[in-house]
Amino acid sequence: MAAPLTVGVFGASGNQGGSVAMALLKDGTFKVRAITRNPRKKEVKELKRLGAEIVKADLDNEKSLFDALKDVYGVFLVTDYWEYMDIDREVQQGKRVADISSHFGVKHIVFSGLENVKKLTNGKLDVPHFDGKGQIEDYFRELGSPMTCVRMPGYFENFLDVLKPVKSDKGYYVLDIPMGGVPMDGMSVKDLGGVVLAILKSPEKYIGKEIGLSTDRLTIEEYAAVMSQHTGKTIRDSKISAKDYEEQNFPGVQELTKMFQFYLKQPHRNKDLTLMLNPKAQSFEEWMSKNKNAFMND
User: Fold this and answer.
1) pLDDT digits (tens, 9 = 90+) for 214-265
2) Which positions ≥6 away from 52 have C-beta within 8 Å?
3) Cα separation of 231 and 148, whole Å?
4) Residue 255 CA, distance from chain mean position
5) Are 7 and 72 in contact (CB under 8 A)?
6) CA distances from 260 to 56, 96, 137, 140, 145 (A)
């Protein structure tokens, strides 16, 4: 019996890569090569305990990537704009992996990409953390790489962080998200792994495809209602305008404002396909029921 094929997973200590590595390890069809800059992280140690091969590599270091990608069948690649907030650096990181994957003849790359908003809107909107991934995706295609691109929606987990409800001066909580009444796709990042596993198992179906992911599509008012139900707190849609949202003072606010303006255009995300690929992926209602205790502690 042939030995299992190896999949190199970038960002193995992070949200997306960690989800993918865990899903592959639990399934057992593929061997996992967890690629990380910091093998000492507790998340990486746990992957090693579960049977992953750990390889230290850096997306900025070409030699380390040659070592990481040698003899792999497949690759899961995620890049992180937010670490340096440098679109050119992110694009070069992605291209580096594309070139080395091509050199080794990697059979299947699953890339966590997003749309090139600047190109799609003829320069009217630029969303660097989307646009760079769009450029990387285009480069994979130029090389003729055997790639599947998965495009995440907003993480449900963002409601615990950058999109968390804030207390109003009237005592209730509000969601400051400038979407008006337009639904916004969402998904738990922890459910990405099951999707990528299914794609890797059926390369003939998915190589060359772009798959927009989603497990729920709710208006902000509907997200707030589900949160209220599970937390026992009154949470409402603030109905904030894009202009007022952009005038808030926090890092990345202009970037997020433009992202929401792009979301208003309803980029393609396919809930039915997402749930077919990962039938265990959670709706927002299911995710809230599991995370309500961590949701708001004040």
Assistant:
1) 999 999 999 999 999 999 999 999 999 999 999 998 888 999 999 999 999 9
2) 12, 21, 25, 32, 33, 34
3) 38
4) 17
5) yes
6) 36, 30, 21, 27, 31
